[in-house]
Design goal:
This protein has about 190 residues and is mostly helical. It contains ten helices and no strands. It starts with a helix and ends in a 23-residue tail after the last helix.
Length: about 190
């Protein structure tokens, strides 16, 4: 399959930073194409788990990050406001265009800038879920955000932030009821 080819080639080069940069660029491209109605097949979080953990765990200790409950919750919030929101017609949700670019700048800025951007994102997401979506949607908890801040303290803003973007711009697997495993209806046009 195409995913196997991709995994094999990235594994062969072994460049972790290059892989993260690829996912950043892919997320930006996918949002641009989706906004114009030209949908792109997304990576799944399952593929990312396999790729990151199998290939880079020993050197980069990624399992602790990508399997963290707070990390998964925040990635879900990103997903809901970007790749899922852009494909929803007549949604009350505001699509977060430019989120990846903004966060990338913050990750490379002064220490703490990215963490502040995360807190602002969580506050805006939760406000939108409560007020605009009338409670229907995923809220990132304070505990989730604290867990991500701990990951940032232990692993750095750029690594955690880049992984959040990779997972946030990937689709979660579906379960039998048509919902993804994170509880958000997946858009068929994105599959």
């Amino acid at each position: 399959t195409k995913n196997s080819w991709f995994i094999g080639n990235v594994s062969a080069t072994g460049d972790f930073a290059e892989l993260l940069e690829f996912h950043y660029e892919f997320g930006v491209l996918m949002m641009r194409k989706s906004a114009s109605g030209d949908y792109t097949r997304l990576f799944s979080t399952e593929i990312l788990d396999e790729l990151f953990i199998r290939t880079y765990e020993e050197k980069h200790m990624l399992k602790e990050i990508v399997e963290n409950e707070g990390f998964r919750s925040l990635a879900r919030g990103i997903r809901n406001t970007t790749i899922y929101a852009v494909g929803m017609k007549n949604s009350k949700r505001e699509v977060q265009f430019g989120l990846a670019q903004k966060w990338k700048q913050k990750m490379r800025g002064s220490p703490g800038e990215f963490s502040s951007a995360l807190a602002e994102f969580v506050q805006a997401n939760n406000w939108e879920v409560v007020h605009r979506l009338e409670g229907r949607g995923h809220q990132v908890t304070t505990s989730d955000l604290d867990q991500v801040f701990d990951l940032i303290e232990n692993h750095g803003e750029e690594k955690v932030g880049s992984l959040l973007l990779a997972y946030g711009y990937s689709r979660a697997p579906k379960v039998d009821d048509g919902q993804d495993t994170e509880g958000t209806k997946d858009q068929e046009s994105h599959v």
